[in-house]
Backbone:
């Protein structure tokens, strides 16, 4: 019989792992690399609109890791108990950030996707309105929440998500994005919150 090798049991930390600090120059280079990796698609979903495609970042291991490290570092500086991700690309980013920080993750979903008791918030689109939902027991009263999504445009979905958090009794500590379209002034709807974005587009 082969000898049995003793196994050391290590209790996982609930604090997570924050990426190491960056110099200003390294951070600037990382942001420039991310912006170069993003793909701009003219005329989508309609003429006159430029679509910022993050899938070119997601498929690149270095770029994806860099974006997550930078977002994690920003949220690590806040007082946060929980991460909320906005459907759908906010799930890809938010779950990884929550893991990095050793925190739980809560999804803000589109209407009809959640099975248990839930609350909802309506938000406006250009020609219609949509609903976001969250389980009514997803957040405990007083919990401090970081909200994350891939892109800040007009700010409607992020504002609706913040209202859901507050309806349940949570406190919005910070809202973070990979990309922000500054010319759409989405921050105006989020003016009462701490907001940050990695990459900015002026037009």
Residues:
């Amino acid at each position: 019989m082969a000898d049995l090798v003793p196994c050391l049991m290590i209790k996982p930390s609930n604090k997570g792992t924050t990426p190491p600090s960056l110099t200003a120059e390294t951070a600037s280079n990382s942001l420039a690399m991310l912006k170069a990796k993003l793909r701009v698609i003219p005329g989508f979903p309609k003429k006159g609109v430029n679509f910022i495609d993050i899938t070119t970042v997601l498929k690149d291991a270095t770029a994806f890791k860099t974006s997550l490290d930078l977002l994690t570092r920003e949220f690590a500086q806040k007082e946060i108990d929980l991460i909320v991700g906005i459907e759908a690309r906010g799930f890809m980013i938010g779950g990884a950030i929550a893991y990095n920080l050793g925190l739980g993750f809560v999804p803000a979903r589109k209407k009809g996707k959640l099975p248990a008791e839930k609350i909802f918030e309506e938000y406006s689109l250009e020609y219609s309105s949509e609903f976001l939902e969250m389980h009514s027991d997803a957040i405990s009263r007083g919990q401090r929440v970081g909200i994350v999504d891939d892109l800040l445009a007009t700010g409607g979905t992020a504002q609706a998500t913040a209202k859901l958090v507050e309806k349940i009794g949570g406190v919005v500590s910070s809202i973070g994005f990979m990309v922000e379209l500054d010319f759409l002034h989405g921050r105006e709807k989020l003016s009462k919150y701490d907001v940050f974005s990695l990459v900015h587009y002026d037009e």
Notes: Confidence is low (pLDDT under 50) at residues 1-14.
